[in-house]
Amino acid sequence: xxxxxxxxxxxxxxxxxxxxxxxxxxxxxxxxxxxxxxxxxxxxxxxxxxxxxxxxxxxxxxxxxxxxxxxxxxxxxxxxxxxxxxxxxxxxxxxxxxxxxxxxxxxxxxxxxxxxxxxxxxxxxxxxxxxxxxxxxxxxxxxxxxxxxxxxxxxxxxxxxxxxxxxxxxxxxxxxxxxxxxxxxxxxxxxxxxxxxxxxxxxxxxxxxxxxxxxxxxxxxxxxxxxxxxxxxxxxxxxxxxxxxxxxxxxxxxxxxxxxxxxxxxxxxxxxxxxxxxxxxxxxxxxxxxxxxxxxxxxxxxxxxxxxxxxxx
Length: 313
Known about the structure:
Elements: E1 4-7, H1 13-25, E2 30-31, H2 43-53, E3 56-61, H3 63-67, H4 69-80, E4 84-89, H5 97-103, E5 109-110, H6 115-127, H7 153-173, E6 218-223, E7 227-234, E8 237-246, E9 250-251, E10 261-262, E11 267-273, E12 276-283, E13 289-294
Parallel strand pairs: 1-2, 1-3, 3-4, 4-5
Antiparallel strand pairs: 6-7, 7-8, 8-11, 9-10, 11-12, 12-13
């Protein structure tokens, strides 16, 4: 199949990366942020183009993903571009009203508690055939021992009868092998974690598309005496992808445990949530990359702080 877009909350980034690595080892081409976003690029534009060019959309769903506005925006784009969507549910949290309209009738894979088995089921579903794994090599043949004496007639008759019975059982009476769910089963679509069902029935999607709701955010430039932000502004705070430029020496973010300090002219290209930095590339005033910063998605961050307070020294 073609390229696969992987959508996830940054709180689930570890499992999303592991899933991406597994699928690529099976031959699937994946697109995942921030790995596939070139440095200093327009994040929103890169994600939009990646979804439009993808053949399928894999959603790593969890309670945190359900709260992420960025995940919802990516799902809207996938729906409006008629992409095949497969939710992989890490927990049994229900969809909210916005997501239920899009995903309620979609086939999905529920976590079985066995991550390796889940990844194999996802690859099987996307590839359309069971994932093949290397078989164990047979051990060395056991050498035959030479008999030191000839058995008696009775032993020979008993041995022949046992051999005939064994052959009859092997060829005619042995139970047929049962299908191995690990070779291609998919957990049944359900609203709770299902650890036993491994088969998903194919069904046609009946979801009607609708125009996504108009958001109040705008892409603009917010300029203060200490800093400048060019990107998505919502309710007066950076909220989305953009570029943050420091006009004087300041803390990267008041919630940065490393208490890193940027110098005048430094800038960060990344993603913000309500004025709080999730992740981004930090560059010096000379354009040389310093490091990748990842503070994490904070959907519950309080909104009663000023723009400048996010980078308070």
